[in-house]
Each structure stands twice: as structure tokens, then as C-alpha cells.
Design brief:
Helix content: over 70%
Structural class: mainly alpha
Number of domains: 2
Number of helices: 12
Largest sheet: none
Oligomer: single chain
Order of helices and strands: HHHHHHHHHHHH
Shape: globular
Length: 304
């Protein structure tokens, strides 16, 4: 990690250093208990214990078969900057297309412009990753463990993980909805789910399936697990790598109701990748999870 960037993020990294969670959380939770922020002082002790457990590092036993990845920090930074540029340009293009596209109702323009933007970002992002691998003399197998040997077992494990995670995610969504209502917020599903809930058009359903079930699992797993998780671990921040990428994964989906389920899902996928050293399983689990959500909404019909 460049020295300037290391200095900039070092205050955040201290929280994830050995003993950092215990050191920084103690005064915060004690103040919350004393001044009545929490219903009872004992809650401060319990919540602090949970906080320290959650921020404790995934130790070496979780590293599994994950090998050192031989890409440079500079090439990774270039890739991330190109991805941000792609996101920005595509977003502006989608807004312009929606405004300039006449003769079609607004909801239709919004759906197809956002869908086209998703396709451009996902396909363009995968293309940038291909150039990144070539720049570092790597291939998909050496960089992300995408190999045929053992793929069947990885796929079966991924399907099993998706089934378990989907069940837990339903419970976490119910919890999120309850918490949001308690603080007078209205739970809203993700935009893709809303689009599916409001249509029976097979063209729209196929477009959502392509972006959410086929392309998103590959693109997102390579970015979050294959690159960010591994790079931050190799930079010497295993705690921040593990929990930071999980939270960032959930945040990028821009939906408060699904935040907790997605953090949980990302934690499971992080463990899966660290244990196996291959993205075959996480990609399968991600695709199966999204496919289950897709068919759950489609079979329920409009207005579900």
C-alpha cells in the first residue's frame, strides 16, 4: 500500500489492529450505558462483547488454501480508478439517455436505461479485469482459482451455501423491516426487485436475470472477494479485509432493508473463498442466491 494512503487510513485501521476493538469500544459503550443511551447499563457490556467478537480477526485457520496473489498495488489502484471512471461515465450516460429518450413513458425509460447501464458496467468491468490480469501476467485460474479440478464439489457446496443463506436472509430481512419501522422508516426493496414486482414482461424479466443472475455474481465476486479481500489481507489488514469488504459489499447495493442480509451473505462468501482458495464456489452461491430471489419474486406475480 502506498505510504500516503497508508497514513490516511491508519486511524481506521487501528480499530482492526490486535486489541484495537477492545481499546476503542470500551469507553464508547461505557458512556452509552452511563448516560442512558442504552436501556440498561448491562446492555453496554453485552453489546461490547458482541462488537469485539464481530471485529475479531479471521485468524490463519481461515486462510485455507488461499495463496499469495502476485499483482502489484499500483495495477490494482489503476483498475479501481478505471472502474470508478466507468461507473461515473455510465451513470451520466444513463441519466442523459433517460432524458433524451422521448415517446416512451418515464418508467419504461428508467428501467431500460438503468438496465443498459448495469450491462455496460458489468461487461466493461469484466473487460477491465481481463486487462488487469494480462498486465500482471496472470490468468483466471492463478488469480482466482477458477479451475476445472474440483469444480463439481465447489459448485455443489455453493448451491448448499445459497440454500442456507437464503433462509437466514429471510429472517434478517424481517428483522430489518421491524427495526426500520421502529425508527419510523419505510422498508423499500431493491430497485431490481421492484422492477420484477411490477411487470410480467418476459423481456424485462430476462434482462434482470441476465444482469442479476449471470453477470453480477462473476463481476462482484471477482471485485470483492478476488481482489479487495485478498489485497487488503496481503497488505497486513486481515480484520479490515474481512469485515470491511463485507460491509462495503452491502453498502454498494444501496438498500437499507437488505443491508443486514447482505453483510451476512458477504461474510459467508468471504469465509468460503478463504477456505477454498477458489471463486467457483462463491460465484455459484451468489448466482444461486440471486436466482432464488429472482424466481421467488417472479412466481409470486406482480404486486407481491
Amino acid at each position: 500500500m502506498p505510504a500516503g494512503l497508508r497514513r490516511a487510513v491508519s486511524p481506521v485501521m487501528l480499530l482492526f489492529a490486535p486489541g484495537g476493538a477492545e481499546t476503542f469500544s470500551k469507553p464508547a459503550f461505557e458512556i452509552a450505558g452511563v448516560y442512558g443511551v442504552l436501556p440498561h447499563p448491562d446492555w453496554a457490556v453485552a453489546l461490547r462483547s458482541c462488537f469485539c467478537f464481530v471485529t475479531s480477526p479471521p485468524t490463519a485457520r481461515f486462510a485455507g488454501m488461499l495463496e499469495h496473489k502476485a499483482w502489484t498495488a499500483e495495477s490494482l489502484l489503476r483498475l479501481l480508478l478505471r472502474l470508478f471512471l466507468l461507473l461515473g461515465v455510465t451513470g451520466l450516460g444513463a441519466v442523459a439517455a433517460e432524458r433524451l429518450w422521448t415517446g416512451v413513458e418515464g418508467e419504461t425509460r428508467q428501467f431500460w436505461s438503468s438496465t443498459a447501464a448495469s450491462l455496460v458496467v458489468q461487461l466493461g468491468g469484466i473487460t477491465l479485469i481481463v486487462f488487469f490480469l494480462r498486465e500482471n501476467d496472470l490468468n483466471w485460474e492463478t488469480a482466482f482459482g477458477l479451475r476445472r479440478a474440483g469444480a463439481t464439489r465447489q459448485i455443489l457446496l455453493g448451491l448448499a451455501v445459497a440454500v442456507v443463506v437464503f433462509g437466514v436472509a429471510l429472517l434478517l430481512i424481517k428483522l430489518s423491516q421491524w427495526l426500520m419501522r421502529e425508527v419510523h422508516l419505510t422498508p423499500q426493496p431493491q430497485s431490481a426487485i421492484e422492477a420484477l414486482q411490477s411487470t410480467t414482461d418476459p423481456r424485462r424479466q430476462a434482462a434482470v436475470a441476465l444482469t442479476a443472475v449471470v453477470l453480477a455474481p462473476v463481476f462482484e465476486e471477482v471485485i470483492f472477494r478476488g481482489l479487495l479481500l485478498v489485497s487488503l489481507r496481503q497488505a497486513g489488514y486481515p480484520r479490515f479485509a474481512f469485515w470491511g469488504t463485507a460491509v462495503f459489499f452491502a453498502v454498494t447495493h444501496l438498500n437499507l432493508m437488505t443491508f443486514l442480509p447482505l453483510v451476512f451473505f458477504a461474510v459467508v462468501l468471504n469465509l468460503f473463498y478463504l477456505r477454498t482458495g477458489s471463486l467457483v464456489g462463491p460465484i455459484t452461491a451468489h448466482a444461486a442466491f440471486n436466482a432464488t430471489n429472482f424466481f421467488w419474486v417472479v412466481l409470486a406475480g406482480p404486486g407481491s
